[in-house]
Design goal:
- 2 copies of one chain form a homodimer.
- By secondary structure, chain A is of the alpha/beta class.
- Chain A folds into 3 domains: 44 residues, lambda repressor-like DNA-binding domains (434 Repressor (Amino-terminal Domain)); 130 residues, Rossmann fold (3-Layer(aba) Sandwich); 134 residues, Rossmann fold (3-Layer(aba) Sandwich), CATH 3.40.50.2300.
- Chain A has a 6-stranded parallel sheet with strand order 2-1-3-4-5-11, with helices on both faces. A 6-stranded mixed sheet of chain A has the order 7-6-8-9-10-12, sandwiched between helices.
- In chain A, helix 10 packs across helix 11.
- In chain A, 50% of the residues are buried.
- The interface between A and B is large, with 63 and 63 residues.
- Strand 2 of chain A pairs antiparallel with strand 2 of chain B, so a sheet runs across the interface.
- The structure holds a DNA duplex.
Chain lengths: 343, 343
Amino acid sequence: MNLKEFSQKIGISQTTISRALNGYPEVSDATRRKVEEAAIRHNYSPNVRAKSLATGRSMLIGHVIPAANTHEMVNPIFGDFLAGASHTYTQRGYDMLISRATDAGEAKTYRDLIAKAAVDGIVVQGPSVNDPRIAVLTDLGIPFVVHGRASQVDVPYSWVDVNNRQSFKRATDFLLDLGHRRIALLNGLETMDFAQRRRQGYEESLGARGIAADTGLMRSAEMTETYGYFETRALLAQDAPPTAFLVASLITANGVARAIAEAGLVIGKDVSVVTHDDDLSYLPNGSDIPVFTATRSSVREAGRIVADMLIDAIGQPHKAPQTVLLEAELVVGQSTGSAPHKG
Amino acid sequence: MNLKEFSQKIGISQTTISRALNGYPEVSDATRRKVEEAAIRHNYSPNVRAKSLATGRSMLIGHVIPAANTHEMVNPIFGDFLAGASHTYTQRGYDMLISRATDAGEAKTYRDLIAKAAVDGIVVQGPSVNDPRIAVLTDLGIPFVVHGRASQVDVPYSWVDVNNRQSFKRATDFLLDLGHRRIALLNGLETMDFAQRRRQGYEESLGARGIAADTGLMRSAEMTETYGYFETRALLAQDAPPTAFLVASLITANGVARAIAEAGLVIGKDVSVVTHDDDLSYLPNGSDIPVFTATRSSVREAGRIVADMLIDAIGQPHKAPQTVLLEAELVVGQSTGSAPHKG
DNA sequence: GGGCGTTTCCAAAGCGCTTTGGATAAATGA
DNA sequence: TCATTTATCCAAAGCGCTTTGGAAACGCCC
């Protein structure tokens, strides 16, 4: 049913219906109620295509899935981040449009999305160190918010990030306080900005106690379970194995735990593990007592904040970029204990 | 830039440009090339809102995130399924619109999506046993494809599913052949259709060997790591503990493994584990040799197939519903071995 | 009854595209 | 050379809504 038909059916003019449904003040409460009720009864909703053509706004937020090498890993935080963001979108009348980057590159995908007038704003996920997308989007002049930050980008832009440096500094401090001196770092891919910052926090903490960071104890890769397993196995087989592991994700931490168990060691006693925990809904870190001591920050909550900031920015195009720095909490679980005394 | 401006800039009529860009035969190859090249050079893409208003098609496929209790779990397969589907969408000129079900319910969300003419087709994920969404969508007359099936729904509809019954039957057979007789089943939530089918396969296999399914060995819940851990701990503490576990997801299997290790038992020797593996990109089941013996089926591939079927259905609205039943493969890993002899 | 503010209606333009019918121009064949 | 095909152009309608200007209806007050 379109507006014309609906108008005839309920005997109210198209103008008044449109005004009633869009909250204009010059329509009486009685008529507004009548229209709203009739719309539900007759299942009338304005055609969004026509509406967005007329208003110039699509009420759609674009998310772009990174370029598509067949076997590229899907970021495990993707689902929870989206769930958080979509919570906000629904409340504020938006939907989410997901586009996959074409082979021509992500920048081209953004350009297209905007040239086609498909979305009102864009969310950028997983920024790398000197992420080119930020310059492209700034240039295109569309509202956007980055989940994470990009070092070395000097134009101002809106972002929401966890204080990764600080949280890994605290985690390292925590392990040092427990007497650990050989602490391995199983980091994410260091092309990612967050991984850089985490390493900085780790090195900073060690440096403050006069301990030189040992590159032999540092690893960097995509954060799979097997990565945690194999690197831990290799590290534990060294002459002077680490007594503690600082890990970038709960999934990887599972692999670390597997390798530790397999070596006949007890986690939290022989070897300590601290991991970052994105608080994914399908991957809770234990129930009442956490399995792993962790730096925890909800990625779902981050999604919610990013979405709110973006919609605000769409409403006020000339406002200066906003930034939000979230602090991760350090939760103590069963995976950490005092460093073992040397036999 | 809009069509009018673009037309003036390159000195070709709007009609011809439109025809060239949409592949109509009455435009010469030379002009078509000229238009396409100029479009790239001047960064012109037709406004999708206007285009879809004119054509009546949005080139958008709707996915709906289930109703939003604040802490509801995000399905971990969500990301990979979307990645698979979006691969197809991109190839065939579609994008994905994700909407979250409102508190008024998912049916209402579908109705809205269609009344608003926002999408050309819909993907239904995670069907429950007698899923009401299928009747709603059939009624609304929009093309849709279900990932999974819904028992007890008798109208024909298009679906793509793994043969869950068969794969859990095979897995149980496999454990029985190894001499196991007390096999625990850590199933997913049995409101979900797939969980029902898996239990049927399990019971069928036991039945064929004259073994009665023991409800004391069967569990059903959301497939988290902690669920696997706590249930396994409880089961192993029983008087006659199971010697094998059949598990619904790799994440849960991690919890199972943790409880087994904690009990001082060796997986694959003292206790065997078989799990279903959705082949998620961020959760590989080991590298060359699988960690867990598993029934494996790629959810990403399923996403690709679902998307292709849906787009086909949009192009041929009166074609009969199609169905695809995928067989899971049984891969043997390090988590299974002969049943231990009784001390 | 006149005047006034409020509410509703009517008609039409505009959003940017597709699609159609008919005109025009250019290339081709007899 | 004229008729015929082929390629392009022009003008306009239509997709379904919003938005505007101006007119009409309504209730209310003095």
